[in-house]
Amino acid sequence: MKKPKVRELLEAARILAAGPATLPFPGAPSPAPPKARGRPIFHERDCVGCGTCAEVCVGKAIDMRDEGTVRRLLIRYDSCIQCGQCEAWCITGKGIRVEPEYDLTTYDRESIRDAVEKDLVLCEGCGAAIGCADHLAWVAEKLRTGAFASPTLTLVHLAKLGLGRATGDKIHLDGRGDRMRVLCARCRRPASLL
Known about the structure:
This protein is an alpha+beta fold. It has two domains: about 35-120, 2-Layer Sandwich (Alpha-Beta Plaits), CATH 3.30.70.3270; about 125-194, no CATH class. The chain has six helices and eight strands; from the N terminus they run H-E-H-E-E-H-E-E-E-H-H-E-E-H. It has helices at about 1-20, 50-55, 85-90, 135-145, 150-160, 185-194, and strands at about 40, 60-65, 70-75, 95-100, 115-120, 130, 165, 170. A four-stranded antiparallel β-sheet has the order 2-3-5-6. It has a two-stranded antiparallel sheet with strand order 1-4. Strands 7-8 form a two-stranded antiparallel ribbon. A hairpin with a 6-residue loop joins strand 5 (about 115-120) and strand 6. Helix 4 (about 135-145) crosses helix 5 (about 150-160).
């Protein structure tokens, strides 16, 4: 009967000597596990503004709005469930990345928001948004010579290379014909049929 009591006393002494087993989380940040998902962060240089992240966001934390000639992607971390779908479905693979920082506790909701703004390319016919200039240039780069089948992709790609000039919502290429215009699909059809 004495041996179990001695064993319990030795175990209690060992635990007291080792100190607390919990982490001092509120006082000091605790490290994230190696494969932990945290908050997603936009990388403006690599983001093309396609809006895929906003479409696949489970918590509807990413909002995409076209305002004039600018597309704005806004992420609200107070709605984010840190699932990582935005990073998994990003078409560039680098536009939005999930960082291991997971503690976003704050009293100010404005401090836990992140946004990225991209320039839109507008239709010269009706003024509708076709897409972001970076996105269209990315598509043209991926298609390589196939991009020359679309006048819109051709003009955006040439403007990105510095061979055309962009003024306001129009891209000008010196000496281009009437068919070489930046048009949406609805305006391109009658222009191609004429």
